[in-house]
Amino acid sequence: MKVVVVGGGLLGLLSARALSREGAKVTVVEQGDFGQESSWAGGGILSPLYPWNYSKAVNDLAAWSQRYYPELIEQLILESGVDPEWTPSGMLVLEDDQDQITKATTWANQRDMNYIEWDPQALAEHESEIGGEHRGLLFPEIAQVRNPRLLKSVLESCKRTGVELLANHPVTELIHNEGQISGIRSNQTFYEADVVVVCAGAWTAKIMAMLEQDIQIRPVRGQMIMYRTEVGQIKRITLMDDHYVIPRRDGRVLVGSTMEETEFDKSTTEQARKQLSDFAEGLYPCLQKVEIERHWAGLRPASPDGIPYICSVPQYEGLFLNAGHFRNGVVLAHASVQLLLDLIGKRPLTFDPEPYQLDRS
Questions:
Q1: Is residue 206 a part of any domain in this protein?
Q2: pTM value?
Q3: 69 and 200: one domain?
Q4: What's the CA gap between 39 and 35, in Å, rounded?
Q5: Residue 36: predicted pLDDT
Q6: Residue 115: how many CB atoms within 10 A of its CB?
Q7: Does 361 fall in a domain?
Q8: Number of domains present in the structure of the chain
Q9: Neighbours of 281 (CB within 10 A)
Q10: pLDDT, tens digit, for every residue of 107-145?
């Protein structure tokens, strides 16, 4: 089977790797450089932010990925020699609203997730670097990956397993014969395929418009900043007021993120830089003594309900989507690829496919 994957982010590369391991001859076409869009720009938290506010469809994928990510990381290290730095740093959610705490603990109990509830005194004892008085819920088993390293690892794995990787190859046509997909055209070249998988992130709607398909995925800009601190000074992923702080193994600390409707504008703004630094330095006063090392933006691929499209495309045999993961591309990626493999291989399904279809009416 010949497969063309459109999009060279984490979803596209993991899809290509998995299909290649199943025996397919796989080509990935990417309009720019591999792994330089939202997969690279995000934080790498292996959990939805405030998962109790997400649908069952999102949480089912997240739970499967969380369970099997350690195994995937071990495989990738062996295949690529690059460590994606899977780290079970835990996720601390600061929340002073009792109704929200009750909602969170109810959700955690239903999912059999371990958590620790801290009042302000306990939080101050365990997290002395946090400024102010807060209540918190610690989810100690939530992990993170360093997503730029994860992308390097998956990319190298694809190279070693024979995936053809074509950067700077924007798709100009999805080619079919009476509804049967036969390939794509890029840079005036036809690439034959039995199956085409569109994993083009925020650009998916533009790709699918070539077939007059109205796919509801739009770009939502997120800006982030990064500090460099002493190793171990900040220990855990920390969430508050829909923002987060993520400590890496080498002492770098990521802070994010904004939510901006700016179409395909990836520029950064001084307003966002100040918003994020005020949040971070108010929460962790130790960051006031540290310079901001980097400031960047990415475009999240947002579907209307936050649920990705992982499905075949009606009326086009051999055409599939794996896109629209919004803020949760990294945590949902592993499970999304599993469902995609099941659908393409027409084998027993790991998940109920209905929530991820194009038609959700």
A1: yes
A2: 0.95
A3: yes
A4: 6
A5: 87
A6: 19
A7: no
A8: 2
A9: 18
A10: 999 999 999 999 999 999 999 999 989 999 999 999 999
- Of the candidates 139, 137, 142, the one whose C-alpha atom is nearest the C-alpha of residue 62 is 142
- pLDDT, tens only, 37-71: 889 999 999 999 999 999 999 999 999 999 999 99
Same domain, residue pair 138 and 224: yes
Peptide bond into 257 cis (omega under 30): yes
For residues 133 and 231, membership in a common domain is answered with yes
- Looking at the fold, whether 289 and 151 belong to one and the same domain comes out as no
CATH code of residue 49:
3.50.50.60
Which amino acid appears at position 104 of this protein?
A
User: What CATH number did the domain enclosing 243 receive?
Assistant: 3.30.9.10
Is residue 127 domain-shared with residue 191, that is, in the same domain? no
Q: Say whether both 250 and 309 belong to one domain.
A: no
Tell the burial category of 25 from Cβ atoms under 10 Å away from its Cβ (0-12, 13-18, 19+): middle
Q: Which residues constitute the domain of residue 202?
A: 2-78+147-217+304-356
Residue 311 CB-density burial (10 A; 0-12 exposed, 13-18 middle, 19+ buried): buried
